[in-house]
Structures are given as structure tokens and as C-alpha cells.
Design a protein that fits this description.
145 residues; mainly alpha; Four Helix Bundle (Hemerythrin (Met), subunit A)
Length: 145
Amino acid sequence: MKAFAVSVALAATLTQVASDRPPTRNVGSMSGLMVKIIYPTSDALFYIETRTPQTDAEWTALEGQALMLAESANLLMMPGRARDQKQWVEDAKLMLDAGAAAVKAAKTKNVEAISALSDQLLESCTTCHKHYRPGYGQKPKPPID
């Protein structure tokens, strides 16, 4: 009986926590999120050595792009976007970690640290795409005559 009472109390607490969350809704598609936010922000980090910010304003913009990339990982884990709660979330966390490290590096204007994140960021992209994009990384089949 004591275990039942604890279970009921826990269920009531979890229900309260869930109902305290603000309502969210997905506005854009997965494709839109990738093409309009994730690709451009990741490119800013991938090409840091050839597109190095020169002014404080440019560094602030890069920090914002790194922040958008990190927060986009959170968007990927939202209900309605997360394909599952295991592999998808693990893959999104790889992007979150790389993005968060990029924010920290951009704040200190550390080009070497951002450049060093390229492999980690690329891994986050390719790992997810291998799991969730059929045919990713495969050569297209030649047309049949």
C-alpha cells in the first residue's frame, strides 16, 4: 500500500511538472530548420579559418550563429521533431555539445578552438544523417536505359 501511495504521489508530481511547461509548437519543417538555420550556422563554424571575423561586430555575429546552432539541437529534441527518444536524442546532443563549445570559443575570439570543433560538429551531422536519411553517403545509382 505504501508503494502505491508513493506511485500516486510521483504520478501527480510528474503530471503537474508536465502541465507547468509552456505550450510549444513547431512552426517550420525539419527541412526548413536544416536549410535555413543549421546549415548556415554550421558553415560559419566550418569555414572559420577562411572567413575569420575581423571586428567585434563580426565576432558577436559568429557567437550568435554558434548559439543558434546549439539551440537548434534543442529544437531537434522537441516533441513533434524528435524521431525517437534514444538515438535521435543522442545524435542531437552531439550537435548541442559542439555548438555550446563553439559559443564559448567565439566569446573569447578563439579561432583555433572553433576550428578544432570541426570534426566534432561534422560527426554530429554525419552520425544523425546516417541514422535518419536513407541512402546518406551512398553513390546514386546510374540511370537505367
